[in-house]
């Protein structure tokens, strides 16, 4: 569902909202100060320009104010499409925001410290919000490489190990990402995914174009289930960032052929 606060539009998952004890959001392209129009919400530092970096901070501050969060507690990483799960302790809390000099490479974060939003950025890659009820949260960035590496399941396993929680008490929301119809790939990528997740139902093939299509959300779902999360505890939002119908709402790396003016941000925090 989309929540509108002034000009800011945030996507939220209904199941996670209903549980309580946790907060989360996924930004859209609207409500910030980026872009030629001055109203786009770019959440990514990756363009590495001084001026844009300032705007990213301002954008995140706008979301922080809307959600009543301390902006310096936002914690982020340098995403490298790997499978490292970073445990966010008090020393690391605020990385890239309150502690701008602290830049750590990882694609997932976990923490049991309240009011410390874990923040990842996404073009078409899958955001996975993980909540160990009343105990801890995790935020995952999973592109196709992260999917092949099973980073979502590894995040759950790390939370189970680090915080002594049961996977049966873990709830996951799979946020907006590129859908199977839009995620067209060549054989080498298909083979890599297929090796890790062989279920035929996750893929289709178009013989006319000689292209494959993979269901990244479905792969994440299987990764989470393999880690012990019950299927009923997983919400698959089913919103595509790339489908034409959503082009006014989300940036899409694929949909805009790499000309996208920004990336979305995903945040989760323990209340
Ligand atoms: Zn789509």
Overview of the structural elements:
This protein is an alpha+beta fold and 271 residues long. It has a single domain, classed as CNF1/YfiH-like putative cysteine hydrolases (4-Layer Sandwich), CATH 3.60.140. The chain has helices at residues 14-19, 50-67, 144-149, 151-163, 187-196, 216-226, and strands at 2-5, 8-11, 22-27, 30-34, 75-76, 85-87, 108-111, 118-122, 126-132, 136-142, 170-174, 184-185, 203-206, 211-214, 234-236, 264-270. The strands form 3 sheets. A 6-stranded mixed β-sheet has the order 1-2-3-16-8-5. Helix 4 runs parallel beside helix 6 (216-226). The radius of gyration is 17 Å and the shape is globular. The mean pLDDT is 96. Bound molecules: zinc ion. Zinc ion (ZN) is lined by residues 179, 181-182, 240, 242-243.
Largest sheet: 6 strands, mixed
What is the CATH H-level superfamily? CNF1/YfiH-like putative cysteine hydrolases
Strand arrangement within the widest β-sheet reads: 1-2-3-16-8-5
Shape: globular
Determine the structural class based on helices, strands and strand pairing: alpha+beta
- Gyration radius, to the nearest Å? 17 Å
Number of domains: 1
Q: Enter the CATH topology name.
A: CNF1/YfiH-like putative cysteine hydrolases
Ligand kinds: zinc ion
Q: Could you give the order of the helices and strands?
A: EEHEEHEEEEEEHHEEHEEHEE
Give the percentage of residues in beta strands: 25-35%
Mean pLDDT: 96
The beta-strand count equals: 16
């Amino acid at each position: 569902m989309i929540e509108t606060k002034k000009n800011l539009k945030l996507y939220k998952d209904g199941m996670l909202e209903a549980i309580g004890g946790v907060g989360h959001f996924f930004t859209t392209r609207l409500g910030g100060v980026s872009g030629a129009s001055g109203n786009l919400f770019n959440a990514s530092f990756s363009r590495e320009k001084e001026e844009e970096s300032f705007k990213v901070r301002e954008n995140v501050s706008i979301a922080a104010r809307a959600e009543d969060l301390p902006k310096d507690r936002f914690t982020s990483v340098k995403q490298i499409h790997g499978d490292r799960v970073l445990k966010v302790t008090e020393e690391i809390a605020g990385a890239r925001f309150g502690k701008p000099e602290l830049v750590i490479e990882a694609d997932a974060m976990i923490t049991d410290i309240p009011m410390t939003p874990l923040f990842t950025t996404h073009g078409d890659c899958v955001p996975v919000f993980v909540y160990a009820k009343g105990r801890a949260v995790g935020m995952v960035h999973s592109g196709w490489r992260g999917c092949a590496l099973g980073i979502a399941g590894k995040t759950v396993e790390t939370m189970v190990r680090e915080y002594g929680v049961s996977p049966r008490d873990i709830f996951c929301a799979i946020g907006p990402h590129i859908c199977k119809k839009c995620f067209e790939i060549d054989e080498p990528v298909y083979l890599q995914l297929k090796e890790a997740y062989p279920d035929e139902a996750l893929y289709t093939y178009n013989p006319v174009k000689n292209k494959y299509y993979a269901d990244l959300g479905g792969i994440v779902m299987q990764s989470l289930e393999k880690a012990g999360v019950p299927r009923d505890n997983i919400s698959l939002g089913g919103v595509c960032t790339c489908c034409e119908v959503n082009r006014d709402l989300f940036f899409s790396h694929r949909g805009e052929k790499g000309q996208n003016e920004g990336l979305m941000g995903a945040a989760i925090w323990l209340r």
